[in-house]
Amino acid sequence: MFLRAIARPLMAGVKQTTGIVGLDVVPNAREVLISLYSKTLKEIQAVPPDEGYRKAVESFTKHRLTVCREEEDWEAIEKRLGCGQVEELIEEARDELKLIEKMIEWDPWGVPDDYECEVIENDAPVPKHVPLHRPGPLPEEFYSTLEKLQLNSKEAPPAVTSGESKAV
Amino acid sequence: MERSEHGNRLDTNSDYLFQLLCFLKLHTYTRVQVSIDICGVDYPSRKRRFEVIYNLLSTRYNSRIRVQISADEVTRISPVVSLFPSAGRWEREVWDMFGVSSINHPDLRRISTDYGFEGHPLRKDLPLSGYVEVRYDDPEKRVVSEPIEMTQEFRYFDFASPWEQRSDG
């Protein structure tokens, strides 16, 4: 535990493994990400400016690009973005580029404004034995609570069982 | 589009199926990379009687979505095998069981029925025990298939409730 705390700044240099089968470590992840995001922003110009798709892609690509430019270290990028590992981010960026190319080819823009998509809200109660698939918690909260638990456990054993009381 | 506690369901028409699934697979905010199941349902009272259902899973966002598309006997849906390689067998199954075929499918063969089987089993108009039965014929020394002969008529039990008709317990 103490060793990990001391060695942690040294460990941030080299990544041994992503922990995911089939996904190799990319050593120059930051440069790859910056180039992919700049390319995405260039490609998305071909989409008409009013479309929600263009706005969504531009917003998250710009956010991720600024974070990548500001932070030097892949670990800092991962922590700040909170979107998983940099290799996964590279995959997502590549897929988004492929998707933009296909969307431009298929050209789905130009839906008339009065087209309504029927949304049915079904509020019937689910029986207790049926599993509900809910998305997981945010990575940022996880990281901050983990940090605080590790710092606190060095001094004294944690007095509460739930980590949420320690998170701000 | 239905949004409910039971799970999200999205209806679409057949022209845009491949595009929709490609978008769902590749877009950063909806990364559904896994197709869990492709199955069909037969609603004989509807005009487009079959409904092909794609169950998809996003491991990144831990959420599932179901895409449904309606088709009749002659509609051909586009194969999604290039997007989801596991869909190969499911599409063959849908073709075999229902008769909903795909355009330009790389490998569309029967998968669950017998080699010379005629008909599509899971349609509602094919009876439960089928039309032919097979038996080993000793003089010919091979298995022959003959029209079905049932000694007992098909019994249909219609219990109003399990508690009322307790004759023998």
UniProtKB/TrEMBL annotation, chain A:
| Keywords assigned | Electron transport, Membrane, Mitochondrion, Mitochondrion inner membrane, Respiratory chain, Transport
Q: What is the protein's species of origin?
A: Linum tenue
Family named by the database record: Belongs to the complex I NDUFA5 subunit family.
Where is this protein chiefly located? mitochondrion
What does the record say about its membrane topology?
Peripheral membrane protein
The source's domain of life comes to: Eukaryota
Localization recorded for this chain is: Mitochondrion inner membrane
Give the UniProt entry's GO cellular component terms. mitochondrial inner membrane
Provide the protein name: NADH dehydrogenase [ubiquinone] 1 alpha subcomplex subunit 5, mitochondrial
From TrEMBL, chain B:
* Transcription among keywords: no
A molecular function (GO) held by this record is: oxidoreductase activity, acting on NAD(P)H
SUPFAM superfamilies linked: Nqo5-like (SSF143243)
* Alphabetized UniProt keyword annotations: Electron transport, Membrane, Mitochondrion, Mitochondrion inner membrane, NAD, NADP, Oxidoreductase, Plastoquinone, Respiratory chain, Translocase, Transport, Ubiquinone
GO-annotated cellular components: mitochondrial inner membrane
InterPro entries of this UniProt entry? NADH_DH_suC (IPR010218), NADH_quin_OxRdtase_su_C/D-like (IPR037232), NADH_UbQ_OxRdtase_30kDa_su (IPR001268), NADH_UbQ_OxRdtase_CS (IPR020396)
Catalysed reaction per UniProt? a ubiquinone + NADH + 5 H(+)(in) = a ubiquinol + NAD(+) + 4 H(+)(out)
Q: Give the Enzyme Commission number.
A: 7.1.1.2
The entry's localization annotation reads: Mitochondrion inner membrane
| Residues forming coiled coils | none
- What membrane topology does the UniProt entry give? Peripheral membrane protein
Q: Which family does it belong to?
A: Belongs to the complex I 30 kDa subunit family.
Query: How is this protein named in the record?
Result: NADH dehydrogenase [ubiquinone] iron-sulfur protein 3
Protein species of origin = Linum tenue
